Automatic annotation (TrEMBL):
Record flagged with keyword Ribosomal protein: no
Domain named Radical SAM core: residues: 15-250
SUPFAM superfamilies: Radical SAM enzymes
GO CC terms: cytoplasm
GO biological process: tRNA wobble base 5-methoxycarbonylmethyl-2-thiouridinylation
UniProt keyword annotation of S-adenosyl-L-methionine present: yes
Native source species: Aminicella lysinilytica
UniProt-recorded name of the protein: Radical SAM family protein
Sorted UniProt keywords: 4Fe-4S, Iron, Iron-sulfur, Metal-binding, S-adenosyl-L-methionine
The protein's required cofactors: [4Fe-4S] cluster
Source organism superkingdom: Bacteria
Record Pfam families: Radical_SAM (PF04055), Radical_SAM_C (PF16199)
């Protein structure tokens, strides 16, 4: 797993606000034999105490006091590769989670792990303790990217483990990273398409963050690794998001929050961290949809003219009377339509000066649906 979380961290999932909550329990993978170049767990685990059974109980109890109004609660074991830790440790943690599930205090048990830390014995144990969801830190389906990232496995094991997890009846999640060494728009799209072929219920998309105390950070300092710019990261993630979303995969996370990252100084290096990365991606998708609808509405005859004018200074030939245009989204997607910090509004203001655009709500629209109306002569 590339990501570690400070405890306690509690969040509602955006897609299910106020009805679904996760109690995250960070289980560091002490003594992990792998050397993923983006991971700083070796440094972290060198000086943090192991998580005891009492710690797990305390974390669950603390968060349960705030969750009485929440419909479904999941205990989620994040951090290292849960199923790569010794079996007796897995069982000790799972026993506690199962006790809460059996008592009806939590609804689901969720964990994340490496694709090569799955076998029959492990899955039998997870089933015996009532685990519902297994997320695999796949990162990429491109073998070269996996190799350059020091993952220690190839993509073949991902297909095998995913099938085993699905055959056992667990809910499957797949985590993908964007911008690892050797990664490109093509490998990102390939990874998203291969994910769709496997058909997990859940997915997470994480742009690569360069964290101190990692091999990636050393490569970055030596000039061997160049982090993606924010625009590149958004562009690649957007294309992956569209592929996964079209296939009906629930994308439960896009990008990291600052609380997801632990390092000694709390610093984040590289250009891909943004606290509202998901909104950058969803806003970019909204802009793309609005722009193509606007151009379609404007008509084939005018499309060439609009394209030619995009991004240029105001033409002296732009009519003084600007045409009135309404953009619509439902209220949930309104901020995506406007774009983070109003960036979509700015874009249309700058590039479509012939229009006077009003941003409006139509709750008849579904999530991710937008409508454009040009009010000729109104
Ligand atoms: S498997 Fe890789 S990402 Fe996970 S803890 Fe080990 S080194 Fe870090």
């Amino acid at each position: 797993m590339p990501l570690v979380q400070r405890l306690p961290t509690y969040r509602h999932r955006k897609y299910n606000m106020k009805t679904h909550a996760i109690i995250p329990i960070f289980i560091p993978h002490k003594g992990c034999p792998h050397n993923c170049i983006f991971c700083n767990q070796k440094k972290i685990t060198a000086h943090i105490a192991p998580v005891t059974a009492d710690d797990v109980v305390e974390t669950i109890e603390t968060w349960l006091t705030t969750l009485s109004h929440v419909k479904t609660v999941e205990i989620a074991f994040y951090g290292g590769s849960f199923t790569a830790i010794p079996m007796e440790d897995q069982t000790a943690y799972l026993k506690i989670a199962k006790r809460y599930k059996d008592a009806g205090k939590v609804n689901k048990i969720h964990l994340s792990t490496r694709p090569d830390a799955i076998n029959k014995e492990i899955l039998d144990n997870l089933r015996a303790y009532g685990v519902d969801t297994i997320e695999l830190g796949v990162q990429s389906f491109d073998d070269r990217v996996l190799k350059l990232s020091g993952r220690g496995h190839d993509s073949a094991i991902v297909y095998k483990s995913s099938k085993m997890i699905q055959d056992y009846g667990f809910e499957l999640g797949i985590q993908l990273m964007i911008g690892l060494p050797g990664d490109s728009m093509e490998t990102c799209i390939y990874s998203a398409k291969e994910t769709v072929k496997i058909g997990p219920e859940l997915a997470r998309l994480y742009p690569t963050i360069v964290i101190e105390d990692t091999e990636l950070f050393e490569q970055y300092k030596r000039g061997e690794y160049k982090p993606l710019s924010q625009d590149e990261a958004v562009e690649r993630t957007k294309e992956m998001y569209k592929i996964l979303q079209k296939a009906g995969i629930n994308i439960i996370r896009v990008g990291l929050k600052s609380s997801d990252i632990i390092n000694e100084n709390g610093d984040i290096d590289g250009g891909t961290f943004h606290p509202a990365f998901r909104q950058l991606v969803e806003g970019a998708i909204a802009r793309e949809k609005l722009e193509s609808q606007l151009q379609a509405e404007a008509g084939v005859a005018r499309r060439a003219e609009l394209t030619g004018r995009a991004g240029t200074a105001r033409s002296p030939f732009v009519q003084e009377e600007r045409e009135k245009v309404d953009f619509f989204s439902n209220s949930r997607n309104f901020s995506n339509m406007i774009g983070n910090s109003g960036r979509n509004k700015e874009y249309f203001l700058e590039n479509y000066r012939q229009y006077d655009i009003l941003y409006r709500v139509d709750n008849g629209l579904k999530d991710g649906e937008y409508a454009v109306i040009i009010k000729n002569g109104d």
